[in-house]
Amino acid sequence: MTPRSLIAALASAALVVSPAAASAQSGGGSLPMPPPPPGAKAGAHKPAAATPAPAPTAKPAESTPAVGTEAPPADKKPVAAEAPPPVPQKVDPAVFDKALQDYFNGDPRAAAGPLYAWLQAAPKTDDNYAWGQYFLAKSLIDLGLTHAGASYLARIARERSNPNVIPRALDALKQLTDRPHDEVMIDEQVFGALDLGFLPEETGAYAHYQQGLVDLRVGNERWANTHFAKLSETSAEASHAKFAMLVTRLKQVKEPTEELITDFLGLSKDEKLTREARNEAALAVARLRYERQDFAGALTAYNLVKLPELDPGRASLYLEEAWTRYKLGELRASLGILTTLDAPSFRDEFLPDKYLLRALIYRDLCHYLPAKRAAKELTRRFADSLEAVRNRDDLTQDMRLRRAANSHGGTMRASRFVETLDLEGERLGRYAGSFGDRLFTHLTKLYDLSRAEAVRVYDARLSDAVRQEADTLLRAAEQVRLMEYEVGLKLYERVKKGAKIVAPEDEQLLTPDSVAFRFNGEYWNDELKSYRVSIESRCIEETP
Predict the structure, then answer these.
(1) What is the torsional sign of CA 221, 224, 226, 229?
(2) How does the average pLDDT of the chain come out, rounded?
(3) pLDDT at 78 over 80
(4) Predicted structure pTM score
(5) Which H, E and C letters describe 247-266, residue by residue?
């Protein structure tokens, strides 16, 4: 089996999965906040089209020539001086109350522009300044501009001008971590650098977990243990922290112990974790048992992975199970799983090992011509990518390798964040009129700068990821070439006198509660794991 690096896969899973965000605190909580203005309606915030009148712009003062200045020569044109920045207009304090009224009436579109205008004019020492940032962030998030909203929430956490607003801002930020987000701004600069003494229990637990992850990434395991030790044993963060510590411990040992596998197995049944996290723990058990040559135990662990009903599943999971069944000698079951991987749901997956495994199965059954065709299928299907590797081209421009790199790990998260910024940047154009020139210009610049940085991070991760995928492809192609040579020798091998065909294996009979149908080329999601291939062995048993 030639899967992706085991430790790299587990480390990626450990840092991808994060605890489910707790529900946001209601407006009637114990934390003080400005009450809604008189006449505000209570209810769900539903964006409504409302365009506030744009604020008048200041007329720049006309410049007068200074006394005693010398006129420029006739042959030289005077250099135009840069215009001074416009002076912020004073905003009536009643604008803040009116914006809050619009927000509580369910019209964040009308509230966003006035809130930004008020923040530009109000001093940062104002008691309501942090509340203005908070409600502007909530308005932007309600309108689908989550990154812009997150930037204001992060600003509240960094400035800490109003202790009453910080827990609400952190709680709103924690909810945004379930979707593509700026990992540096939120995970590292906010939760990874917080003073944890003043936080509520739930928010503090999440901050301890994130700070422990940051310490693990830089190799400070002792500091990470200090943060993880403060987590309640009954919290989801504690289970996620245990998974991250197990992955770190796995990097430090040459041979995984049974105790380590048992710890992963316990996490696979931990109901405090999300289904995705439990599946990752079960996959860790299966991969570790496979490395220890415990193929039966690995197959049992693969069956612990629970997918949503009618979900087609993961192509990599099916391929790993096919390798496990091949090692157990279940060639027909393994070939059936490879038939599953030919389904339309998986045809774009980057699985070069699939063709190698199919060739191995045909070879073991002495079907040499099908084995040779299966081996050639790999070099035919990936011909363009192999040519790009040989020519030392820019591998990030190869669509097949690029798609494979974007399908997992940090590259996948960076790609999704860039897509989110593109989507929200297009959505921002809808609010150009209602936001006013000042807020629209500010948000346009914010998204442009954020996207440039996100693309830089994505390109750096993509460059490393495509090299790893290219190495996987080259290893599979090399093994396939050896396979073709071996099969070619078998084709022309003389059969000794007295040799006879190996007795066929007894096929497993159907039970009374099972039904078998002949495959007609149609794929159904509820049948993907039940394909079996009936194929006879052509191998010859030589008599002594």
Answers:
(1) negative
(2) 81
(3) no
(4) 0.76
(5) HHHHHHCCCCCHHHHHHHHH
- How far CA 375 is from CA of 1, 366, 544, in Å, comes to 16, 14, 32
b/e for 383-399, b at 16 or more Cβ within 10 A? eebbebbeeeeebeebe
Gap between the Cα atoms of 241 and 18, Å rounded: 9
Burial of 255 (0-12, 13-18, 19+ CB in 10 A): exposed
Yes or no: say if 412 and 406 are a contact pair by the CB < 8 Å rule: yes
Q: Is 271 exposed, middle or buried (0-12, 13-18, 19+ CB in 10 A)?
A: exposed
Question: In sequence order, what DSSP letters do the residues of 346-357 get, joined into one string?
Answer: GTTS--HHHHHH
CB atoms within 10 A of CB 334: 24
Whole-number pLDDT of residue 64: 41
Residue in 228, 300, 234 with CA at minimum distance from that of residue 265: 300
Residue 299 and residue 329 in contact, taking contact as beta carbons nearer than 8 Å: no
Alpha helices in 382-431 (DSSP H): 383-390, 399-405, 409-428
Quickly tell me which residue has 């946001």 as its tokens: 24
Alpha carbons 430 and 114: distance in angstroms, whole number: 17
Query: What is the Cα–Cα distance from 318 to 323, expressed in whole angstroms?
Result: 9
Residue 426 one-letter amino acid: E
The structure tokens 């007068």 sit at 64
The two three-digit tokens of residue 107, written as one number: 């019209």
DSSP category for residue 525:
G
Q: Which helix (H) or strand (E) holds 540?
A: strand 540-541
Token pair of 525, please? 């999601």
CB-hemisphere CA count at 13 Å for 156? 28
Dist. CA 157–CA 254, nearest whole Å: 42
Q: Give the number of other CB atoms < 10 A from CB of residue 151.
A: 20
Alpha helices for 177-328 (secondary structure H): 183, 201-217, 221-228, 236-252, 258-267, 275-291, 295-302, 315-327
Q: What is the pLDDT of residues 39-65, one digit of tens each?
A: 555 444 444 444 444 444 444 444 444
For the stretch 373-394, pLDDT in tens is 999 999 999 999 999 999 999 9
Q: Tell me the two tokens of residue 469.
A: 């995928």
| Alpha-carbon distances, residue 446 vs 188, 306, 331, 418, 455 (angstroms) | 19, 41, 56, 14, 14
Which of 38-42, 71-75, 426-430 tops mean pLDDT?
Answer: 426-430
